[in-house]
Design goal:
The chain is mainly alpha-helical. It contains 18 helices and three strands. A three-stranded mixed sheet has the order 1-3-2. The relative contact order is 0.15.
Length: 525
């Protein structure tokens, strides 16, 4: 049976009978479907819940890792007597680790699969944070902080890509909402734990606790199937893994199709001559910057990079508005209580205040409605229009910050500005998996995410330098960035179907296959 199956799969016909028929003469009587066709007919089931929980925990681990660094560094500055340069170095190098991780983990995912890459990066993140909690000195802390940043940068892009490849079109947007809500919850949980127990348990136990979502994600991922789309494109002769993944994904979902009566359209990776090619880092980037996708890649890179600078710069500007008593606005507060006797606990110096942590919780809670509303708008009016509307809203709210308004209006305006920036971020997370074919999907997502974070680290440096001399000058930079995003949002065109990118790549490569009577066969996931 296995020999017949392998012989069948090496023939030129890209339609593969996943039920391994013994009589190949009956192949043309089977229903021709794609992986996405099968997924679209499946009902939402328990396996989808497991996917969302696992991928949501990956997203939560991302936000908690970034948030814990902002909470713990001021403590270490006091206890280890770090200089301002050392503190800035830790932040910058961790951000760089996140950026490079996003760039280089993506191609590994495209070559070796979503499941193993997500599991390994999450496991290494867990280990790095646990080891960090035993750091004897700053150099040790910094090294494993960079390792954790590298893992976080790669795993977040995998979370959104993985869901895009295992979900039906009907539930895809709702899943993006759930994953993003997990990310928002990571911010709230980190600040909440710091507010309630940091002064009692110390930064070491706090750091170890922040690693829990990562190991929980690993445990759940072990019980999940690989992405069927990845297996369908990456396989050579043996469809066994694809069959097993589809059956596991569809178990209990009352699928419309009987997998014993259909053939799955084979999607091999081919060069311009139709020769089967293995996925590789160089080939992934060759696809991303190929003739068909080059312009779109540069457009989305510019848009996403500006958005990352705007998002991270806004956090510093909002802090500066209160710290520098901009327009007479100030909030006075006291640092976190200092009750622990351990020399590793918080000492009496300039650490985060209770107000800072409460503001962090409120900020994360404010992101929830933005998550739901932005996805709803994208579903109703499209990603392009939603992105343009949020970009124009950001420009208006940033410009209003230049003027002195009553305190209540300043708070409202900042909230609406954060709402709009978060909305744009989520829309781009919906767009990115749609722009690239399966062979380079995670590479493209990771490249854009990584470059955006690296550019943001430079942009934040410029904004903080401007903030030292003038709050209005820093706000003015944000206004210019909003203008750039508006221009880029009008230049960026999004294909609304994941399968469009596959067809476009096939056309460019000249890899349309013909059936036995010379008819062109569909190329789709």
């Amino acid at each position: 049976m296995q020999e017949e199956e392998m012989t069948l799969l090496t023939e030129t016909d890209p339609l593969v009978n996943i039920s391994s028929p013994s009589n190949t003469s009956n192949r043309r009587e089977l229903t021709e479907v794609t992986v996405q066709d099968v997924l679209d007919k499946a009902k939402f089931s328990f396996i989808d819940v497991m996917f969302l929980v696992a991928l949501g925990l990956i997203a939560m681990a991302d936000s908690m890792q970034a948030c814990y660094l902002a909470i713990v560094l001021p403590v270490l500055k006091c206890n280890w007597h770090l200089s301002a340069a050392q503190e800035a170095t830790a932040t910058a190098l961790t951000l760089c680790g996140t950026g490079f991780g996003a760039i280089f983990v993506g191609p590994l995912s495209d070559r070796h699969g979503r499941k193993p890459t997500a599991a390994i990066t999450s496991l290494v993140l867990f280990v790095s944070m646990v080891v960090t909690s035993f750091s004897p000195n700053f150099a040790f802390f910094l090294f494993f902080g960079i390792v954790g940043g590298w893992c976080v940068g790669g795993s977040l892009s995998i979370a959104y890509t993985f869901w895009a490849e295992v979900s039906s079109q009907k539930y895809r947007a709702a899943g993006v909402v759930v994953i993003t809500i997990f990310w928002n919850s990571g911010l709230a949980i980190s600040n909440g734990f710091a507010l309630l127990v940091l002064n009692r348990i110390g930064w070491r136990i706090f750091t170890a606790m922040m690693s829990l979502p990562a190991i929980m994600a690993v445990i759940i991922i072990l019980f999940l199937p690989e992405s069927p789309k990845f297996l369908n494109r990456a396989r050579k002769d043996d469809p066994t893994k694809l069959i097993d993944a589809l059956r596991k994904k569809l178990r209990g979902s009352n699928t419309y199709y009987n997998l014993n009566e259909v053939r799955i359209a084979r999607e091999p990776d081919t060069d311009s001559e139709g020769t089967l090619q293995e996925s590789s880092i160089t080939r992934s980037f060759a696809t991303i910057f190929g003739d068909e996708l080059r312009k779109d890649t540069f457009k989305i890179l510019a848009t996403y990079s500006c958005l990352q600078v705007l998002y991270k710069g806004l956090l510093y500007v909002v802090t500066g508005i209160f710290a520098k008593n901009f327009c007479g606005l100030t909030i006075s507060d006291s640092p976190i209580d200092q009750n622990s006797g351990s020399n590793d606990d918080i000492s009496e110096c300039d650490t985060l205040s209770n107000g800072d942590l409460i503001n962090g919780i409120l900020l994360s809670v404010a992101l929830y409605p933005s998550t739901v509303i932005s996805v709803y708008m994208a579903e109703k009016i499209g990603e392009n229009r939603t992105l343009k509307l949020f970009a124009m809203a950001c420009f208006v709210f940033c410009a209003v910050l230049l003027f002195c308004l009553p305190t209540a209006l300043i708070f409202l305006n900042i909230g609406l500005l954060i709402f709009s920036v978060a909305g744009m971020s989520l829309v781009l997370y919906m767009i990115l998996p749609q722009m690239y074919p399966t062979v380079a999907r995670n590479s493209g997502f990771g490249l854009v995410d990584g470059v955006g974070k690296l550019v943001a680290s430079i942009g934040v440096f410029v904004i903080t330098a401007a903030l030292e001399s003038s709050v209005r000058g820093a706000i003015g930079i944000l206004v210019l960035i909003c203008l750039l995003i508006i221009v880029q949002s009008f230049l960026l065109k999004v294909r609304g179907d994941l399968r469009d990118s596959e067809a476009r790549i096939s056309e460019v490569n000249g890899s349309h296959r013909k059936d036995k009577v010379g008819n062109s066969l569909p190329h789709s996931d």
